[in-house]
Amino acid sequence: MWTADEIARLCYEHYGLRLPKQGKPEPNREWTLLAAMVKIQPAADQACNSPDKPAQVTKEVVSMGTGTKCIGQSKMRKSGDILNDSHAEIIARRSFQRYLLHQLHLAAALKEDSIFVPGTRRGLWKLRPDLLFVFFSSHTPCGDASIIPMLEFEDQPCCPVSRNWANNPSVKASGNLEAPEDKRKCEDPDSPVTKKMRLEPGTPDGVAHHQSFGNQESSPDPPSVSRCNLTTEELATVTGMAPSGAKVVDVYRTGAKCVPGEAGDSGKPGAAYHQVGLLRVKPGRGDRTSSMSCSDKLARWNVLGCQGALLMHFLEEPIYLSAVVIGKCPYSQEAMQRALTGRCHNISALPKGFAVQEVKIQQSGLLFEQSRCAVQVKRADGPGRLVPCGAAISWSAVPEQPLDVTANGFPQGTTKKGIQSLQASMARQECIGLHPGSNPENPRPPKQNMRT
After folding, report:
1. Rounded to whole angstroms, what are the CA distances from 67 to 64, 281, 330, 363, 365?
2. CA atoms within 13 A on the CB side of 186
3. In whole angstroms, how large is the CA radius of gyration of the chain?
């Protein structure tokens, strides 16, 4: 019916044609992530199909999001006037919910082109049985799905941890598994560490080669971690994800932190650095976030559906993903299956209609042109730092205001004065019980929280 490359190509073309320049990365200086929801349905004319030919389908992007940012705990607001999580996957799903709400309006108005049909219970709706939705992301979701094995012929794309660092008493006491000084050196474009990071000619897809900074004067080769350095339990977490006979020397790292109360990462050098299968929160710059990783959220959608709690009041059954497609990037099929479905198999006592789904997971061989790797290759040794784009774009297949561009959780271009005016206005409305544009004779409608 469709291939992973077809889904990726459709999303990339939609990004280039339908999304404006505003909110996109600055060429050769910024990068971003892309995610989208694709609707797949049988073609309108099936008369030409024969038993020897597969059924023809139409593919349409119904929601799309870009973004890499997530606000810290100190910037969260009870008023709900700021977006907490602006990662591309979350924005695409939020835009998808707008699309579903619009389709519900069409169904209630008895429009034939709605994706919903009446359910068996009065007042409830269900998805047309001939439709399915495929979720696309240009990169593996942050969190558990990004902890994948690295073989001995690959380069570690993040700063390695020196062998004696994990035994540092000050680190153990603080519980911080990132060495602040080393992390700062990695982020400083003028530091000796960053200057040593160069694109190797033989490195695929522009993956940066990082040299060990455990000892600046030592051999430039990164430390190799052999199997004999790992315990049986540590080996079990990574050997099952590597090709048969391949030597696992490290893992791709995720910046997502274990949630409080979980058994934390060991921080040991090499393949045992991370503990897999744990719940994690997205990383922040100094200020810890409260947003769960994209891996955890995708796993939740695979059990509870993508529609959210509000729309579920009007639906007879949840709306599940039929497949997840990932663009060209560091990838492990086993890690994706573990993160999205494997961790959920023991969930029980779900309400009627809910169940853990065996979602189809595939990878495309097509690289997103504004991904970190693609931009890194284009700019080579260009001046300045390569940084993530600060803006996020939300697009939905709805007739009214389909597009939104935000930065730092607010509409792009919002000034500090504008934010303060908005807060003051909302505080006054809270006191007198009014909604903007209303009057004392008209009650205020329920407040919608932007963070959902």
Report:
1. 10, 17, 19, 20, 22
2. 19
3. 24
Q: At what angle do helices 294-304 and 333-340 cross, to 10 degrees?
A: 60
Return the structure tokens found at 196: 């040593």
d(C-alpha 98, C-alpha 306), whole Å: 11
Alpha carbons 296 and 323: distance in angstroms, whole number? 16
Note the pLDDT tens digit of each residue in 253-284.
888 888 888 788 888 888 888 889 999 999 87
**Cβ burial, residue 357 (10 Å; 0-12/13-18/19+):** middle
Contacts (Cβ under 8 Å, ≥6 apart) of 82: 71, 75, 76, 409, 410, 450, 451
Return the SS3 of 321. Answer: coil
Cβ atoms of 323 and 359 closer than 8 Å: yes
Instruction: Please state, in angstroms and as integers, the Cα–Cα distance from residue 246 to each residue in 234, 321, 371, 421, following that order.
Output: 16, 33, 28, 59
Q: How far apart are CA 88 and CA 94, in angstroms?
A: 10
Tell me, yes or no, if 187 is annotated catalytic: no
Active-site entry in 60, 89, 152, 369: 89
Q: 154: which DSSP letter?
A: S
**Phi-psi region at 242: left, alpha or beta (left = phi > 0; alpha = psi -120 to 50):** beta
Q: In whole angstroms, what separates CA 65 from the centre of its chain?
A: 10
Query: How far is it, in rounded angstroms, from Cα 10 to Cα 4?
Result: 10
Q: Look at 148-152, 348-352, 440-444 and tell me which has the smallest mean pLDDT.
A: 440-444
pTM, rounded to two decimals: 0.74
CA 224 from centre of chain = 30
39-48, 301-310, 415-424 — which is least confidently predicted? 415-424
Strand bridging mode 387-388 / 30-31: parallel
Separation CA 402–CA 117 (nearest Å): 24
| Buried residues in 294-331 as b, exposed as e (16+ CB within 10 A) | bbbbbbebbbbbbbbeebbebbbbbbbbebbbbbbbbb
Nearest 10 degrees: CA dihedral of 387, 136, 335, 172? 30
Q: Which two tokens stand for residue 100?
A: 């579903």
d(CA 267, CA 257): 12
3-state secondary structure 187-211: HCCCCHHHHCCEECCCCHHHCEECC
Site of tokens 């068996």: 120
**What whole-number distance in Å separates Cα of residue 397 and Cα of residue 416?**
31
Rounded to an integer, what distance in angstroms lies between the CA atom of residue 302 and that of residue 318? 10
Rounded mean pLDDT, 121-132: 94
Amino acid at 76: M
